[in-house]
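Figure S4 source data
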Amino acid sequence: AGGGMTSTARLQMIEENEATFVCCTPTYALRLAEVAEADGRDLAGGSVRGLVVAGEPGGLVPAVRERIETAWGARVFDHWGMTEIGSLAVEREADRGCLTVLENECIAEIVDPETGEPVPAGEVGELLITNLGRLGSPLIRYRTGDLVQARTTEEATCSLLQLEGGILGRRDDMVTIRGNNVFPST
């Protein structure tokens, strides 16, 4: 089901194959819902049980998530990765609103963006990644520019690194106003 298909054709393929999961950007999930409504299709009554969204912010934004889940009658799961590194974190059913780092794919560190020193769990810092599975393209302590906050030990539901709220913003988007960090892009 590659490029060149219309949204109507993609919806038809989802129906014909009784797909249970759909992977796309949050924006495209909403676009498919608009097309389905215009075509008189009932997405909420269909076979899709979940959508894995990635490629742009939105999967962990409550208003966007609610619109997608309502239109599709299905759960939304966010996924995060980078072109340079690949898949890095997923949202699990047990941890709604949180991304769990795939520690078999990378070593993740959260550091102070200015000093490069580790920050304690619960504090916002920049995510550094060392990839483990990209042969011929190693990245060591790669500064992603993404700002994240690790769950504290008390909040965590497993032993893996969990990013509360997913990607909170970009280091280059952050503005400090009266001592508060503000992220215009979120």
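Figure S5 source data
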Amino acid sequence: MGYYIDKQGRLYAGDMQPGDREATAGEVAQKQLGTAITAKMAELAAACRDAIYAGFTSSALGEVRSYPFQDKDQANLNSSVTASMLPGNAGDWTTPFWCADAAGKWTWAPHTAEQIQQVGRDAMAAKLAQLQKNEALQKRVESAATIEDVQSIQWTVA
């Protein structure tokens, strides 16, 4: 049992089949590096998603508040920001939006148009920061020369 290259040029482990050839050490190493890269890229993408879903903070209400940012939360925020910009809104227009104060108490706090738009800007900045971090780490993974280099790349939470 070893590593072999089949007629289509694919590397496999097992027993050699007729017409296949034994893989070189370099071919095996390249395949293993490719597998490590693929796994690390998936790991980083999941960490990025988790970091985005963990939420963000905004001081739009005058104090730091935490906001959720799962898919549903993102859609709700988009709807609220859009509604805040519709013509014909009363001057005292507000929308309730789910957020937590510094003590961690979650409430539906009223947000003015300006406040909810600031929350939207803060959300976008937080999400883009995570996406840019993911892109930078993915590029490092793509250029890694060894499995050890790949494994040394980690998503860290600040």
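The first helix runs from residue 25 to 53. The first strand starts at residue 2 and ends at 5.
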